[in-house]
Amino acid sequence: MYAEITDGKVTKIVSVGGSYKNISFGKLAEDKEYFDAGLYKLIDVAPTVTEYQRLGGEVIEIDEASRTVTRTKNVLDMSTEEIYTKNIKKINREYESAIAQLTAGVPDSEKGTWSKQEAEARAYVANNTVSTPLIDGIATARGVDKVYLIGKIIEKADAYTIAIAQLTGERQAKEDQLNMGEL
Known about the structure:
Layout (H helix, E strand, L loop, with lengths): L1 E5 L2 E6 L4 E2 L2 E2 L6 H6 L3 E5 L8 E11 L4 E10 L2 H23 L5 H4 L2 H13 L6 H10 L3 H34 L4
Helix pairs in contact: 2-6, 4-6
């Protein structure tokens, strides 16, 4: 690639084999042909950016002796606030991903019944005369015993609570570490 430079800025880019000001360059044109037309060889440099940096404005360096233009971007360090925001989002994303893995394969509409299922199951264990319309419907549709289903609902609810507690505690610990500057 070659570039037209005006007042220290790239104003036009010419591809290898392209044309410029009524001059058509062949695919095998030498650098000298482009230089004779007033163009500079364009070198794009992609800077390396760390997790806590971002790209800023364009930087153009012109080397008249070699007729080259190096085009890159400034690398800017993120502010403390930007780093904190990035890290808290990462912590929360990891947490949400772990939660999603716990319930993978279960439709959201079914998950929406879990608290009702658990409430009915625990109420039934406390008093086996209480009405359990959701559990009754599920047990009938599945062809399983109501008491068996209630046991499974409570077992799964307890396991889910333990898993959620662990993941929530880990997320909060990471946030505490972040707030203390340890992450």
